[in-house]
Amino acid sequence: MGKKSTKRLSNIDNFLGLLLFFAIFVSLYPLAFIWIIVASISFLIYKYVLLFRKNSRNLKVLEDHFFIISRMKHLRSRHQIIFLFITLVTVSFLTSLTHNQWLDFLLNLVNFILILMIFLIPVSRLFRYLVSLLKQIPLNNMNKYWVEDIDTLTGIQFEQVLAQLYRSRGYTALKTNPTADYGADLILKRNNDKIAVQAKCYGEDKKVGVGAINEVLGGAGYHNCNKKVVVTNRYFTENAIISATRNNVLLVNRDGLIQMLNEFNERKYSKPVFTEENG
């Protein structure tokens, strides 16, 4: 058995041991359970406020609260499970205190949803990983790129094309883990720049919204990048453009992508092979 497997088993043993100790402690000291709940809630509030400071956001601005909440989905899976578990314990404690039938029903419903979410996190990661394996079709041997062909690609394939386009420009392009990219599909490196790239391959008439901007900001923070880029085969909403301008995110829309494709083809064939007009 390898070192990673041994470490994984060790982590599971530690978690189960801690869970058993917690159960015994609560059974022996029921009143201490209240203090555990208070401490857990205080910890969650502290971490929430800390995210504002880390991302240079203002607690008094409602838009910044939405941004921080959107950032939480880029937390590591174990951190998401810990957050949900603490919330579950808190709601369970409140359920034991209430004597109102409707409130009790509502809290039990919340409990069920939290348990379902804790179960679905590892299941969804496994599902995304399997889907990514099925969709990863090698594209490195393609000789020409046409924007109409780009429109038919899956998200994984679009990332592969972008990686090749940026490599042709002198960047080192690394694909992130598709099941845990934390908001960055590609990491580009050249000279002193480390760039997080979020790729969005959409169907016709669909625009890229603010969510993509929040994703790449999260990915840049996680991967310690000094620049952020969102690339799409379509266009951006007005709100996305405003958010990108405020957060210093470079946007590459369909027109910019066509220019990248033409430059790539020019370098390979010494002449453009595509314009939007001639198809």
TrEMBL record:
InterPro entries, per the entry: Restrct_endonuc-II-like, Restrct_endonuc_IV_Mrr, tRNA_endonuc-like_dom_sf, Type_IV_Methyl-Rstrct_Enzyme
An individual GO BP term: DNA restriction-modification system
Record key words, sorted: Endonuclease, Hydrolase, Membrane, Nuclease, Transmembrane, Transmembrane helix
Pfam families for the chain: Mrr_cat (PF04471)
GO molecular function list: DNA binding; restriction endodeoxyribonuclease activity
Restriction endonuclease type IV Mrr domain segment(s): 150-261
Protein origin, superkingdom: Bacteria
The protein's name in its UniProt record: Restriction endonuclease
Organism: Rossellomorea aquimaris
Taxonomic placement: Bacteria, Bacillati, Bacillota, Bacilli, Bacillales
